[in-house]
Known about the structure:
Layout: E1 18-26, E2 30-39, E3 44-53, E4 57-58, E5 61-62, H1 65-83, E6 89-94, E7 99-109, H2 117-129, E8 138-149, E9 166-177, H3 178-191, E10 196-202, H4 203-211, H5 214-219, E11 221-226, E12 231-237, E13 240-247, H6 251-262, H7 266-276, H8 286-290, E14 292-296, E15 309-313, H9 314-343, E16 347-349, E17 353-356, H10 365-377, E18 384-386, E19 390-392, E20 398-400, H11 407-410, H12 416-427, H13 435-460
Parallel strand pairs: 1-6, 3-20, 6-10, 11-17, 16-18, 17-19
Antiparallel strand pairs: 1-2, 2-3, 4-5, 7-9, 8-9, 11-12, 12-13, 14-15
Helix pairs in contact: 1-3, 4-12, 6-7, 6-9, 9-10
Amino acid sequence: MAIKRKKGTPTVPVNENGQQVFALDIGSSHLRLAFGIVGDDKQIKIQGLKQCPSQGFVKGHISDIDSLARQIALIVQDFQNQYGVVIENLVTEVPGCFISAENQDGFATIQSGTVTIADRNRAIKNAIAGVKINESEYSIIHAIPQQYTTEDVDLVSNPIGMYAKRLEVNVHVIGCKYIFKKNIEQAIKMTNPDLNVSSLIYAGNAASSAVLRASEKDIGVIHVDIGGGTVNVTVYEGNRQLLSFGINDGGEYITKMIAKEFSISMKNAESLKCTYGCADVRMLTEDAANSSIVIPDTESNTSQVSSKEVTIRTGALVDVINRALRSMFELIFQQIDYYGRETLKSLEIGAGVVLTGGTSKLPGIEQVASEIIKELNYQDNTFIKCNPKVSVGHPIGISVFEDAGSPGFISDSDKAVVIGLLRSAKFDDLKQYTDDELREEREKNRGVVKSVYDWVRRELF
């Protein structure tokens, strides 16, 4: 479905002190489209936000590119009509289940004695060249410097202008599966050939940009964004992004457990979860836990009214949700332990865990996660020591234009990705290292090596 553009459509003026950005959050449950002005102070003035149900996107995977493209076209067209804007470029995200991330060191020799921007960039490129990410499968989308070191000073945050003979840098490199990248770009292009994806951002980075404070990143924080079909995990400590990964199971995992436990449809299970669900039966009174929920048969394929009904005790429903959440959080911490041991000696998280995404709104989820952290802290073999504090994160540093929508709606925890995409687009290190650029760099390096080899053979043998 192509987007029809109206001639002479007015655009919202951009504040000269900020940058207007359009962001599209493609989730398994919802599509969200937002735009706003991002100031140099990282404050965001939200000018508009719309959402609609997602189609053709399941557990972070494109299941039907035509359905997805049609739904994107609809929300973009409605958005442009409502806000009187023309969208030509937008940023969108890649879920964690389609990324590969690692930390890599690089260095540069400082010829002039003073570190220049070119020296810094050369050190970063050398780090990227050493990553083990499979270049035939992944396209590098983020190269985030963690810290710099000279021969005299450790933990340098900005080396430009410093006297040094050698500059070392540790870089957090994130690659996106090339096929996913091309398919997302294709789905958006199918709506309008003139609509471009200016940046593809890891969803965990976007959500963290929306809700985390620098003080939390400094003392250590685990950010868990739980969407409908995916979980994105990002770990920070000492203002460094140490780990990034995803799991292709989110709130739908809980829904599926409910459906299987009580032999009901996914639609009815989702309705039960949203209407009666909470994370722990201890949050219910005895009467509430023993109350019954009657589910009519809404899945009959006949025109006759079915007498089949399913009766579920509320406490039993909550027990299933609790088991699902515990399984999910245990898997998350197992993965942190697995990925962390590869590159880190230990991990001390002082600020605890921050949750975002639609599932973070489940009542009592903080309590369940906190109890699991306490249990893990008592295990002798874990290298993670985590503050059991768990909180739900909401977008910070935002103001809302009058016509943009309710401030409470926009600052909800499930809007973290789409709001964070706006800020990330301006302030994160978003140099998109395309495959062509990387190939050109490799061919150039091979050419230099071959020239030296030919000279040696010609002159010395």
